[in-house]
Amino acid sequence: MKKLIKVCLIAGIICIFVGGGMTAAAAVLGGAMAIGNYEKSYLWSDHWMDVVDHVDHNLERWDHTWDEPDSSHDDPSLAVSEANRMSFGDIRKLELKAGVGTIEIVEGDTNGEVQVAFADDTFYDCFREDDKLEIKLGRNWKMTDLKSHDKRGNIKITIPRDYTFHKVELEIGAGTIEADKIYADSLEVEVKAGELTVSGGKVGSLSAECSAGSIYCRAEVAHEIEAEAKAGSIELLLAGSKEDYNYELRCRAGSLEVGGSVYEGMNAKEKIDNGAGKTAELECSAGEIIVNFES
Fold this sequence. Notes:
Layout: H1 2-29, H2 31-36, H3 38-41, H4 48-67, E1 85-88, E2 93-98, E3 102-108, E4 114-118, E5 124-129, E6 132-137, E7 155-160, E8 164-172, E9 176-179, E10 182-191, E11 195-198, E12 201-210, E13 214-229, E14 233-239, E15 245-251, E16 255-258, E17 261-264, E18 268-272, E19 278-284, E20 288-294
Parallel strand pairs: 2-6, 2-8, 3-7, 3-9, 8-10, 9-11, 10-12, 11-13, 12-13, 13-14, 13-19, 14-20, 15-19, 16-20
Antiparallel strand pairs: 1-4, 4-7, 5-6, 15-18, 16-17
Helix pairs in contact: 1-4
């Protein structure tokens, strides 16, 4: 990709000089004179390789800068630190809106508290309101200024074992969220361009939205599922069987796969009534949704 950019830039500069030379010759000497003195009009061509070499040298420096990792992002001191840990009791709702970095959600012995440890405690705003804990990217940071692997965004959230939240909301911009298990009455996950993984748990309802990244969720769902893939990928591994759900499927230009059955095509819609007590509404715009089951 970088070689293509380099070639295009060099070619563009050459075209500018060629066009400029021809235009100047035509304007100053007249059409006939410019043609008659073609060789004189292109005396600059004796030096065009110098221009190319100069551009190529600077592009090589650009390549090196592009590939070189930002040392401030890889500083070992930016690992999640116990010194930057905060503890909260009686939390029933968890809302996480992360931009970059790696966010881990694990179970542990926390004496009933939710513990949050940051790599950089100035990177996020973390506060509680009644029984709700909110973690959001700080106001001084913009997603356009950050890289997905920026370790300053690393967080480790430790929750009590088998702890059930009323509601959990997880959103990631361009980084990664990895959750071991989540137990909640309601789980909402959203990925814009990153990755999100929930490896287990049990929820009452599940809502998943993916714009351009990927979502993987393995869970037992008690009531309903809503999933929308705009241009990314959603994969669900659900406890039970395909017949446990009634389905409303909508596929614009992507692909839906439910228990081995594939539904795809332009503006395809289908309703499946299994006489079940659970519902699944799946919509795919240009990505894919894959739903499998395990006993």
